[in-house]
Amino acid sequence: MPGEGALIYYRCTNPKHQGPSGSASDNLTIHERRWAFCPHDSRATGHTWTETGGVDLARLRVLLREGRAAKQRS
Q: Which terminus of the chain has a smaller tally of CB atoms within 10 A, N or C?
């Protein structure tokens, strides 16, 4: 498992995978030999992997929270 400073090169952008799964889940997996993040559950099927260019895990989590907060405000 990568540390908070690890770079994440893919994130799942499937609209159905943008919220928590409702159960304990893993958010990290390997895609194309690099770390990938799914906000829903890395074990789910139907991922749409989008390259991030390499963003650290802590920053990615902040960006996702900010994006959700912005959607809730609009």
A: C
Contacts of 66 (CB under 8 A, 6+ apart): none
DSSP state of 46: -
**45 pLDDT more than 90:** yes
Give the Cα separation of 37 and 11 in Å (integer).
5
Neighbour count for residue 18 (Cβ, 10 Å): 15
CA distance linking residue 30 with residue 54, whole number of Å:
14
So what's the pLDDT on residue 23? Answer: 63
Partners of 34 in the β-ladder: 31
Distance CA 33, CA 63 (A): 23
Amino acid letter, residue 2: P
